[in-house]
Amino acid sequence: YSGGIKDRMKITQMTNCANKIVSTAESVFYSGKPSRATITCQLPESIQEISIKSDSSGYYLVIAIQTSTGLTRTAFPSNVPISEGSEWLTISSGVKKIKLEALEDKVEISAG
Questions:
Q1: How far apart are CA 106 and CA 25, in angstroms?
Q2: 81 burial class (0-12, 13-18, 19+ CB within 10 angstroms)?
Q3: What is the full DSSP assignment across the chain?
């Protein structure tokens, strides 16, 4: 039972952080270059992956965490082009500062 509660807490932290990153990226993108923002997120323990993927249908922030039932990987879609900055986020739990900067054709996301 407690494992299920811990897993739900991890997934909630992951979802809150990812949604904050994506919504801020969209806001910064629509404000145009040279808009930028810095946000703070609490990444859950047991985080295994933070990456940006794209395919023909769009861009996604992908976060994976280890739960009691296995690896949970979730893709959070972005309505704007996003990319990893030169200083990408470290794969570790805790409070992270994240910088988002609007470029000509995308938003670059990097460690703050």
A1: 9
A2: middle
A3: -HHHHHHHHHHHHHHHHHHHHHHHHHHHHHH-TT-EEEEEEEEPTTEEEEEEEEETTEEEEEEEEEETTEEEEEEEEESS-EEE-SSPPPS--EEEEEEEEE-SS-EEEEE-
> Tell me: the pLDDT tens digits for 44-100?
889 999 999 999 999 999 999 999 889 999 999 999 999 999 898 888 889 999 999
Q: Residue 62: beta bridge partners?
A: 51, 75
Report how many helices (DSSP H) and strands (DSSP E) the chain contains, helices first.
Answer: 1, 7
How far is residue 101's CA from residue 10's CA, in Å, rounded to a whole number? 27
Structure tokens at 31: 């404000």
CA 30, 33, 43, 70 torsion: positive or negative?
positive
Positive or negative CA dihedral for 28, 29, 35, 40?
Answer: positive
The pTM (predicted TM-score) of the whole model is: 0.90
